[in-house]
Design a protein that fits this description.
Blueprint lengths: L10 E5 L3 E5 L10 E5 L5 E4 L12 E3 L1 E7 L4 E15 L2 E13 L9 H18 L4 E3 L9 H5 L10 H4 L25 E8 L5 E7 L23 E8 L3 E8 L6 E2 L11 E2 L2 H19 L1 E6 L5 H20 L2 H5 E5 L9 H14 L2 E4 L2 E4 L3 E6 L5 H23 L9 H23 L6 H6 L4 H20 L1 H11 L26 H18 L5 H21 L17
Parallel strand pairs: 13-20, 16-17, 16-20
Antiparallel strand pairs: 1-2, 1-5, 2-3, 3-4, 6-7, 7-8, 8-9, 9-10, 10-11, 11-12, 12-13, 13-18, 14-15, 18-19
Helix pairs in contact: 1-12, 4-5, 7-8, 8-9, 13-14
């Protein structure tokens, strides 16, 4: 349940020219240990001999060590320097990472060329941007990379291990940075998740979400599934109720599990590009088999449009699910599929009625003081195109229905009783905050349709917020998300910085100058001259104004046609321009 070997936190940090020293704070229940990190060989060593600590050197208290990341010149220590306790689960504290710091392991960095120094500054900025993303959490004594069901039904021997050892690597956000700690100093690192952790004000309900690492990234640069069946924006969410007993309901979201892309190209809604059905079937099989083996019976709820480009993607999804069911007999009893056009039918009561029988069959986890009384037997996997806005609305409603059952069971109340008005309002706010944070991590803005989740209906302010979010997403997707995607590639080790003794001729961050870049410049100049013609009219000013605005439109059309070459693309990984 909870770890009997919690991660060491609130460490005393000492440093000299040769080593960093992290000393566990004095605790009568724990033998004092010192982690020594050599600043020349970068080796890690744990000692019970506190005499290795340097004398007369000021010490700092560090809340937690997040890991080590290799960069140019030397690796860098990644430390949480300010954290905030946001709540407890199973009487164990959960912390939110507020501030971080990067410390170079080597006291005097080796010589770097001017090009390398520029690259190093870029690498550091990418890592810092990832550490500033909202939603980084850890618990020293509770492995929050696992669901309550996995924790509470785990083998007792796993409780003897620290959370870093028992962590589910699908959701261990700092897995790459902890590589040097495995097998050597696991207790000196913490298991970090990216997602959401929040409670209703009365602490009746907790929402805990964890984002998968494998295809992490940004909205348009990470779509669909990879060759192993891992999907973009895959998030496991739990609705947890703690009273005398513990109750939990788990629900999933993730990108449509097929091989498809939607590369930004300056258009408001870029075209979807799908791979062949032969490839789709294999990837879909891998994904579905993995989820069924982990969660039991699975019901897919797809909320994409039934018509247009989304409709064609949905038809391919439906067709390939049918192929999988025809060729795999076990899917007949283990897999359900519901297609529902949310935009055409925003009142989802009919959908909830169709899902109700599955919801009751899936049940939820309930653990009494004597042990597990009931386990969750299946899970809903909800998606729309982004698996953000529509998805959060429907997930919140499914979980709300289950919560009524959870509370009635825990409180032994009337089967017909419903949530109190106060708890209902607070739950809506909690789910809306949850949707906003997950959306910010993937798309860079708050969730759209958040007013439906927060207030139960569309509002004028909600529509204005959606307009603002839509425009902001358009800007980020086309002009900023390439950099954000690079940050994910570096943070998770999918791009490894070359050794410092490698002297590159070019930088991975360099963007070649092309004639395409003249198009937006020309459009801007033409439009400026058009405005000048309006403000300072002269002879035949109408003719000149029409000429320059026409030229502006021509340049803008050319910009859109050459859009794939003008957007901000990731530079640390190769991308295919469509």
């Amino acid at each position: 349940m909870t770890s009997e070997a919690p991660s060491y936190t609130n460490l005393n940090l000492y440093e000299d020219l040769n080593n960093y020293y992290f000393e566990t704070l004095q605790n009568p229940k724990v033998e004092r240990e010192v982690l020594v990190i050599n600043r020349h060989s970068y080796s890690l060593n744990v000692s019970n001999d506190i005499t290795v600590l340097p004398s007369q050197i000021p010490k700092k208290v560090i809340p937690a060590i997040l890991g080590i990341i290799p960069l140019l010149g030397c690796p860098y220590l990644v430390l949480a320097t300010r954290v905030k306790q946001v709540g407890t689960l199973l009487q164990q504290s959960i912390y939110y990472v507020v501030d971080t710091n990067l410390l170079p392991l080597r006291h005097a960095s080796p010589y770097l060329s001017t090009l390398q120094e520029s690259d190093q500054a870029n690498y550091l900025q990418l890592i810092k941007s990832m550490l500033k993303e909202p939603g980084l959490y850890y618990s020293p004594s509770l492995d929050i990379t696992h669901s309550m069901q996995r924790l509470l039904t785990a083998n007792k021997s796993s409780r003897l291990e620290t959370p870093v050892v028992t962590a589910d690597h699908r959701f261990l956000w700092n897995s790459y940075m902890l590589s040097d700690f495995f097998g050597v100093a696991e207790r000196f690192g913490v298991a970090l998740i990216c997602g959401f952790a929040g409670w209703t004000p009365g602490r009746e309900v907790c929402l805990l979400s964890r984002r998968a690492v494998q295809m992490s990234g940004t909205r348009f640069w990470r779509r669909g599934a990879d060759d192993s069946g891992n999907t973009a924006n895959f998030v496991e969410t739990e609705q947890i109720v703690e009273a005398d007993d513990i109750s939990s309901f788990l629900i999933l979201r993730g990108s449509i599990p097929m091989s498809w892309t939607q590369t930004p190209n300056l258009q408001w809604k870029p075209k979807f590009m799908l791979n062949d059905d032969s490839v789709q079937e294999r990837i879909l099989n891998l994904h579905l088999n993995d989820l069924i083996s982990r969660y039991g019976r699975l019901t897919i709820v797809s909320l994409i449009n039934a018509t247009g480009s989304e409709g064609r993607l949905g038809q391919s999804f439906t067709r390939n699910i049918n192929y999988c069911v025809e060729k795999n007999d076990h899917f007949l009893s283990q897999l359900g599929y519901q297609q529902y056009d949310f935009h055409a039918n925003p009142d989802v009561r009919r959908l909830l009625q169709r899902l109700d029988s599955d919801r009751q069959i899936f049940s939820y986890l309930q653990v009494t003081k004597r042990g597990a009384a009931m386990e969750q037997l299946g899970a809903f996997r909800v998606n729309c195109i982004d698996s953000l806005d529509r998805t959060n609305v429907v997930q919140s409603l499914i979980c709300r229905q289950t919560l009524e059952t959870q509370l009635r069971t825990l409180q032994n109340s009337n089967p017909a009783s419903t949530l109190s008005a106060e708890l209902s309002t607070e739950l809506s706010k909690l789910w809306a905050d949850h949707g906003d944070q997950l959306a910010h991590q993937y798309a860079g803005t708050k969730a759209m349709k958040g007013d439906i989740t927060r207030y139960g209906c569309r509002t004028r302010s909600g529509q204005l917020n959606d307009l603002n979010s839509g425009l902001t997403r358009y800007y980020l997707n086309n002009f900023a998300d390439g950099i954000r995607q690079d940050a994910h590639e570096l943070f998770h080790g999918r791009f490894v910085v070359p050794a410092h003794d490698h002297r590159p001729i070019t930088s991975p961050f360099e963007s070649p100058l092309t004639a395409d870049l003249l198009l937006p410049v020309s459009a801007l100049i033409s439009f400026a001259i058009f405005i000048y013609c309006l403000l300072v009219p002269g002879e035949d000013w109408v003719v000149y104004a029409l000429f320059w605005i026409s030229l502006t439109v021509i340049f803008l059309v050319l910009c859109v046609r050459r859009g794939p070459f003008l957007v901000n693309k990731p530079k640390l990984v190769k991308v295919k321009i469509q």
